[in-house]
Amino acid sequence: MANLRQTPLTCSGHTRPVVHLDFSSVTKYGYFLISACKDGKPMLRQGDTGDWIGTFEGHKGAVWGVALNKDATKAASGAADFTGKVWDANSGEELHSFQHKHIVKSVNFSKDSALLATGSNEKIVRIFDLNKPEAKPEEFTGHTSGIRHVIFFRNDTHLVSCADDKTLRVWDRSSGKEVQKMDFPSIPNSLEVSRDGTVLTVTHSNHVTFLDSESLNKIREFSVPTTVNSASLHPDKTIFVAGGDDLKVYKFDYTTGNEIESFKGHFGPVHCVKFSPDGELYASGSEDGTLRLWQTTIGKTYGLWKCVDGPQINNDAITSPKEVPAI
Asked: What does pTM read for this prediction?
């Protein structure tokens, strides 16, 4: 196995940089992957193969953030057209469009899919009730610059957000107040809550920081050889992956921080990386307009990686047409 090289599956179809992505949980139909792109057209794919399922048509500006609910029945997107939209992931139909006063950078579903959180350049975190879409949203104020990411956590009793004001903040939904705050020396580029809810993964400058999700105490922090735009912790917490400005996708040991391997496949900076819910692969999105899927264990028979030995699979095994219809 040692002589096997990593052959990512390349998912084309976007026409501009891919800036964010999200996986659903494992469903009876497998799991799914959604990508945010500056072309304004989020795409839904089968998560283990990258096969294109459909494109959500309706935004009039770059899409900055995307989310899938757990069972992949709903998708959400936040965009430069000042809206956060919720979509039926089966039909592609737009279900809700929530108007904001500035660019919506981040969207996230609650566990029960009844609520949508948004973070925008208005410096406000909002929660919309999808069962009462006309109702006034809950609002959380305190950030002093545009918000990059917002995520439900602690069983949806709280939200965690990070912003251009170089802070990470935790919001208590019952009081509507900020209850914890952490300052960083540089802008936090990415934020992830681990699948079991116990660890926050934050990237800033060339660092990846892991925080205890209750106390916000630093569990560990490692430096990466480049400005790191995104990092993701494996579901079993043995390894993490990171990507940034030097076009490489890195894999590190979570305990020691030692680099295990790195791969160059993209032709532009890597903007986002994320492990699949089963941990068998990780996806990366880049300035080059592509998504790539990488095997966690190189050579394992999984998804479209059917060869363990012998010829490598075609790097463009998965492509979708440049112009694709709505779902």
From this structure: 0.92
